[in-house]
Amino acid sequence: MVDAPLDAPRLDADPAQLLDTSRGRRIVFVVGSGRSGTSTLSGSLQALGMHVPQPEVVADETNPKGFGEPQWVVDLHDELLRRANVAVSDARPSAWFETGKLTHVEPLRRRMHEWLEQQFVEGGPELVVKDPRLAWFLGLWRGAAMRCDAQPGYVTMLRPVTEVVGSKQRYYDAKAGEVNRTAAWVNMMLHCERSTRESARAFVRYHDLLDDWTVPVFGLGQQFDLDAVKSAAANDIRRVHQFVDPSLRRVRITWDELEVPKRLREIAQETWEALDRLPDEGGDTPQVRETLDQLRAAYSELYEEAAALSQSTAMAARREGFGEGVRSTQKSGAERIPHWVRALVPGFLRRGARKVLGRAR
Q1: CA neighbours closer than 13 Å in the CB half-sphere of residue 289
Q2: Ramachandran class of 35: left when φ > 0, alpha when ψ lies in -120 to 50, beta otherwise
Q3: Which of 8, 31, 174, 342 is least enclosed by beta carbons within 10 angstroms?
Q4: What is the per-residue pLDDT across 108-142, written as a single tens digit (0 to 9) for each?
Q5: Cβ–Cβ contacts within 10 Å for residue 98, how many?
Q6: Domain boundaries in the chain?
Q7: Helix axes 177-195, 262-275, angle to 10 degrees
Q8: Phi and psi (nearest 5°) for 153?
Q9: What is the pLDDT of residue 125?
Q10: Is the Cα torsion angle 107, 109, 115, 117 positive or negative in sign?
């Protein structure tokens, strides 16, 4: 006697069980650095009929067509980043360890599962979840999707590092600096690539999306088996044509316009060149992955060297904190240090300095 497949419906099952809404559930996680086209992709999938959980983050001058981000997800990620003492764009390789500690916190896992289950019930079987903070918590979201019996797919948006950094400098608070933003991009993109291996994943160039969105988006529909995309009506397609605006690529700069240390620039450029091969047919090869692994190791080594060199800066800030009237009459020594230099100081040193100075953060 041949056993029936484990996922086959029982002939004596209740009719309600045969209409189990969990069947065919899909969730697309849009990941990658901010200012790389993640909002454009999320909005395109939404226009074709996939559900972005509501309410969404309200559009503003930095993203006039909308972010395609669920407000609940953004608020949750901000809460978790504060808990882990990690920034949205954090250049520290060790930051992944800090956020990874939350992966096995069961109350948090239940909270995310319950929210995601509600979105499937209210919004339908195909969801889009996008937020530049999402990459820090892929393990949590993967677990939530599995608990909802949903098939996750990961789309990483790719845009030249110089354009991402330039766009952030133009539209965001510039105090982070070009060096820190470049380092954070390397840290983010190398982790995104590594953490989505062995999963259903795709890579989409921002330029390709703007030039002819139909090619990458309908490719995703086939790869991830997305009914909303594969069965899109003419009106749906028209909405995406109206939504995708090639003029959104408002920043086009090169390394000549950025002041970034040579070694960091080399690692960032080599990382971009390796990532840029992944969207091509047959481009996700063991050789490319090995190159990215080597670049991740090289970046970690560079960061450790920079942190070691900057230890005197942290100690000077700690000593100056003992001066008379420092807190009340002038900026502290740490606050006078450029942000990008402070960002290169290891977390344990910064935390020690804050403890000595009597500051919680």
Answers
A1: 11
A2: left
A3: 8
A4: 999 999 999 999 999 999 999 999 999 999 999 99
A5: 17
A6: 21-309, 315-361
A7: 30
A8: -130, 145
A9: 98
A10: negative
First to last CA, the chain: 65
pLDDT band at 356 (very low <50, low <70, confident <90, very high): very low
3 state DSSP class of 20? coil
Query: Contacts by 290-298 with C-beta closer than 8 Å and gap 24+?
Result: 292/190, 292/193, 292/194, 293/194, 295/186, 295/190, 295/267, 295/270, 295/271, 296/93, 296/190, 296/191, 296/194, 298/267
Listed in sequence order, the residues at least 6 apart from 91 whose beta carbon sits closer than 8 Å to its beta carbon are 180, 183, 184, 186, 187, 303, 343, 344
- Cα separation, 123 vs 175, whole angstroms: 39
Whether residue 197 contacts residue 278, with contact meaning beta carbons closer than 8 Å, is answered with no
Q: For 14-60, what is each residue's pLDDT tens digit? A: 333 333 444 599 999 999 999 999 999 999 999 999 999 999 999 88
**Amino acid identity, residue 79?**
E
Sheet holding 201-205: strands in order across? 126-130, 26-31, 151-158, 201-205
Residues in the chain: 361
The third-level CATH classification (topology) of the domain covering 21-309 is Rossmann fold (3.40.50)
- Per the listing, tokens 């397609």 go with 237
Instruction: Read off the DSSP letter of residue 323.
Output: S
d(CA 65, CA 58): 10
